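Narrative progress, year one. The postdoctoral researcher (J.K.) led the effort to move from monomer predictions toward full complexes, under supervision of the PI. The following entry was the first complex the group processed end to end, covering 1546 residues in total.
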Amino acid sequence: MLHELSRRQFLKAAGAGVAGSAVAALGFGGAEEALAQAVRPFKLARTTETRNTCPYCSVACGVIMYGLGDKSKNAHPAIIHIEGDPDHPTNRGTLCPKGAALLDFVHSETRTKVPQYRGPGEKAFRQISWNEALDRIARLMKDDRDKNFVAKNQDGVTVNRWLTTGFLAASATTNETAFLTYKVVRSLGVLAFDNQARV
Amino acid sequence: MGLQSQDFARISATTFRPPDVRHDFEVAKLIDVSKCIGCKACQAACLEWNNLREEIGINRGVYDNPHDLTENTWTLMRFTEWENPESGNLEWLIRKDGCMHCADPGCLKACPSPGAIVQYNNGIVDFVSENCIGCGYCVKGCPFNIPRISQADHKAYKCTLCSDRVSVGQAPACAKACPTGAIVFGTKQAMLDHAQGRVTDLKSRGFKNAGLYDPPGVGGTHVMYVLHHADQPQLYAGLPNNPRISQVVELWKGLTKYAGMAVVGFAAAFAFVHATIARRNDVSRAEDREAEHLIDEEAARGRQT
Amino acid sequence: MAVRREEGRTTVDRYPGRVRVNHWVTAISLILLALSGAALFHPSLFFLSGLFGGGSNTRALHPWIGVVLLASFAILFVQMVRYNFWTKADTKWMSHIGEAMSGREENLPEVGKYNGAQKIVFWLMTLLILVLFGTGIMIWYEYFGASFTIEQQRVGHILHALAAVAMLLVVIIHIYAGFYVRGTISAMTEGKVTGGWAFRHHRLWLRQEAREGVIDERQVPPRHHGVGPAE
Amino acid sequence: MTNSWTDIKNTDLIIVMGGNAAEAHPCGFKWVTEAKAQRGAKLIVVDPRFTRTASVADFYAPIRQGTDIAFLLGVIRYCIENDKIQHDYVRAFTNAPYLVKEGFSYQDGLFSGYDEAKRDYDRSSWDYELGPDGYVQVDETLQNPRCVYQLLKQHVAAYTPEMVERICGTPKDKYLAICKMISECSARDKTMTSMYALGWTQHSKGSQNIRTMAMVQLMLGNIGVRGGGMNALRGHSNIQGLTDIGLMSDLIPGYLTIPKDREVDFTTYMSTRGFKPLRPNQMSYWQNYRKFMVSFLKSMWGPAATAENEFAYQWLPKLDVGGYDLLRIMDLMHQGKVNGYFCQGFNPLLSAPNRNKITESLSKLKFLVVMDPLQTETARFWKDEGVHNDVKPESIKTEVFELPTSCFAEDEGSLVNSGRWLQWHWPGQEPPGEAKADTWIMAQLHMRLRELYRKEGGAFPDPIVNLHWPYRDPQDPQPDEMAKELNGYVVSTVTDPADPSKVLLEKGKQVDTFGQLRDDGSTACGCWIYSGSWTERGNMMARRDTSDPGNTGAYSNWAFSWPANRRILYNRASADLDGKAWDPKRKLIEWNGTAWTGYDVPDIAVNAKPRDVGPFIMNAEGSARLFSRGLMRDGPFPAHYEPFESPVANVMAPKIRGNPAARIFKDDLAALGTSDKFPYAATSYRLTEHFHYWTKHVWVNAVLQPEFFVEISEQLAAEKNIQKGGWVKVSSNRGSVYAKAVVTKRIKPLICDGKTVHVVGIPLHWGFTGAARKGFGPNSLTPFVGDANTDTPEFKAFLVNVEPSNGPATS
């Protein structure tokens, strides 16, 4: 119907009723393509929505992450778009320039993807396995702790502290991560413990 | 999903106007410059939503980045530091630049390719890449210097007012993102009403020339500004005072087009008529013979000299 | 260049091959430019872009054809300019243009290689091609979009359009004249015209050519003396 | 924040000072524009630069960085002079009427008890006059010369508008206009809110900056009310949470504190922490300290924590110094006293002051472990990046591990925003490559260490091998498990002593509130202030009810707000002495004759009679402190001190450099610069296009602000012949950087004490990894000195020199 309409209209305008078929053969076809193709399809149809919180500042805006796949077994999810959560009382769907670009954080080319190791004096990182890394770190920690642990101070008071290894905690990890970190770090007697609150 | 011609108010380079039977709500985006903090969330949201990525530039001693609109940057914050001579205060005027979606779009008027530029009944002016031939006429048609031609695919690009989002009932990405609500989106009427409230508030805060920017020269726009100094729009990084489609373009796309066709047609017709009525201009036997004589004479003369 | 006596007819050389080639290159370019230009000029003619493989190709090709035109016409110009300087006779001839157009040339002054009207066409084409090329550059967005202000480009567009229309008129006159004046076309196809044609339309020129000498190409020459190769 | 982001819409006046809310917190700043639109509120911005916040302000005034205390003490003076204080509030809810001990004094910029050698005070004289009944003596008339009010009046007398202009460079007329606007908020039906951030904390007297504004707010009666409060805009998404959970040298979750050496046993430890009311029948959370502490120890060591072993009190390390904060640990590292270091999502090479010192320090480590979703500079501190990281890898012996972690989009759990809301989030995809959650990494380390100590033994294995590890999969604990631990649960059934058949708390159940916690080991709780976040009713942090009765902006059923889902702290103070709202239009809670009712959870007992209990129940006084007793290291009242690096001398006490009680290490004192060599007053800050050192890894943000720059005034540019967009070299006594020059009208030279002071703005955000152009951070220049109370580095006021340059390539 649409096809007919525009074609007829055009031919009238071109004032060449008979030549119509020839004209078509010559490749005319603008108008109806315009009608058919005008609007870019809405890219979020049927993506999976996941609620999250912006990891940047402490306004903690609600975001919705739109992911490929419908969570079916064989569909590997990947986030294709992130937008403000309109239900969130604080941001009400809005986002700042950082939040609006979160997608590029998630898929940043300079994200860490494999454990890497750099030995004394070496000029570059090299990939190592998780087990190598963790075994080595645990060994370094234990050796240092066993060597430098202070059970009692000079007055003979039990102080149970380990000062030669320190731990800087994150500013964007979850409370749950933070608590597990706290347990593990404090159980070792670490006092050189700090977070990013000040900077 | 195809649209029907009833969904269009205008289609470029077609000699018919679509039947004006459907009446969608006219939509509009209102940019309240007095609320804008220039955070560029709109720029980020635009790049992200439209899957565009601009190249990473350099700092040129200003906050404007990128430095101009491009085929990938469809909206841009333009920063102006202005010392108000009356109050003596510094004012940082920050304007979100981009397509104004004119009611009477110069780009569409200038476009030679059928259906490359369309205006939907809701007022959005959209570029349709598959019909765009990359001639750059729209650039000359636009009173706001908005369209940009990609050197990669030779197509024209600009803000679509997120026609894809609007078509499913969502606000444009920039409007949704705007943290301070400086960008709002709705029906044109709702935006006009909202603007009135803002202007009143601004006047109460001492901006006696606060007002709405909805230039009549282009039949009004579907992207409007609230300005604290509506009497001097050019303060805001050269926002045109009274924009209208260039006279030259009007002439080129108006009179010239039709006159040209007429003149050429007339010439052809004249030739045809002349051919039928004028006496044949042919060489007669007599002239052939006279020619022979003349040749002999002249040849002879040639030999004597 | 020479007058030739052939079996049953006499001909006069008018255009050598190299000129004819240039002419036709120019002519074809002009036609292609007219078609592609028209496609971009008016929506109802946009379908012509189909001839060039669609709008984008039309947009891309049109300016390049223009370059070809300029080149070929430039050569043509060099080849023809010396016959196209204006003379008193031309003015006189032009004053009788009406008779010429109604086919009565008895009272017209004898004409050299070109008559006034032809010279005017020549100079008009030269002028218009220059204008078209100049404005064409201004609106060749792909390469010169950045070199001119938008306002300049707008002016460029309208001048280009006007010049194009004018050019079309000149071309129409030129072509029509070629058909209306019988025996003309052969000048650009075979390169020669009949003696009668030359006598009727360009007598002065015929005289000059004849003085140069006459080549007899007939098998059996007549007893008539005084025929020899032109020196 | 004492209030919440959404509460800002209830205010009449917003003052943004010591922060730049519009740029650093745009979506929170939305509520400022709401207040302007809905209530016709006004916005004041006081900042050395005309920021993007200033661009939408109703009133802007410049100030020299590091002089905020003088500015605000002047405001207090103005309010007292013009009788613009909320008398009832001040008399009833603050310690204004309390008498101060004889012996307390202040002169020449020093309070009584200063010891120059120790750079510290003997604070014994900074206290109240106690009566025979052990309670503070008060003078309700505020006339007694020894009462806090009179002492304060005397203390602020020197800060006249003329003096403020001399110190701050703020033009007198602008200053008085601001004083007037602020003072009008002393009316019962007018409130002001203060929004501040690191612009106040990153000074050698950061805590006092904030205290001073808190005092202003108390004088105006703006704490505890809707649209009022002291609102700290925390810089990171969960820095509030990490502080709550005590990931700091001296903290235990819920703001309990790590024992000191002198606290040899649990009893001694408790003796100084139990609550001793200073006013009759005052109540406080701290009455329950022992319950919180024991429950915490139970969550740490479970069954191994018993009454017999003091609930494993001795397994906690004890502090021999104030604390091992970032600066101290870096200094120890620099001395070669630290061997191992972990950075979990933290980039100290760019975040800690005096980068050269940080590089040297890290180079002395045996091993460095970096866990981060992004490739940080810290993990590459050994890498030769030319001018951007000029080191010799071969000479750096440190072993470095870079462990890839998941980011927000891939992990599950809760974050605490500035308004103390705990909000739960869910993962949307798998981590890229081999990246793992931090919880998995920490568990793996613990598992390995526990195994090693079980096998080999070693130094004091008990706290490690006995660490309570009740997780479904010990190798990979899940967020819901830790969340439940944090909330607290019943270890052993508790019955009513009166009637043992009546079960009060059933074994294994989640507690509903910290009120249920016990000090006998029958409950465990990771962080008492989070009690109520995951109860038997489920995960309260995941609630998404957007209803807001009374349109107060409280959103009480959205997520969970600590403590006890309270949205506005000290909300008792929103009502007058008899429990009626100061401003009926802004009712929060009210006394209905038998109980407190309203839109928020009262912070005093629901049935505590109005005149009986003071609103500020975190304090032993029950009232707010205009005079902070011995609780601040650098004085019970704030006083103006210049930054350690200042273009002008302290006009009030010329002999004093910086904050006399601020800690500064010997070499760092030597590394300070002076205004003859480094004449310009520099400050550092964030830009709205970027977040800290993360978004330079984000393509879009790199596009929006691609390259490192500094901002200077047109006057300075002309003086030094610096071109807009040209290269400059900025140097301090500790290092130098190359930057593009943004020459702007938004920075104007200030006249301080008759001297022209040029301000140089230095944004952070650039480094040598990521998508943005390589650049530098201000920490290459900043001094290694911290705030007297929190050791927050002085990033906001230091001295530099600026010279035109050809840029890093050719220089």
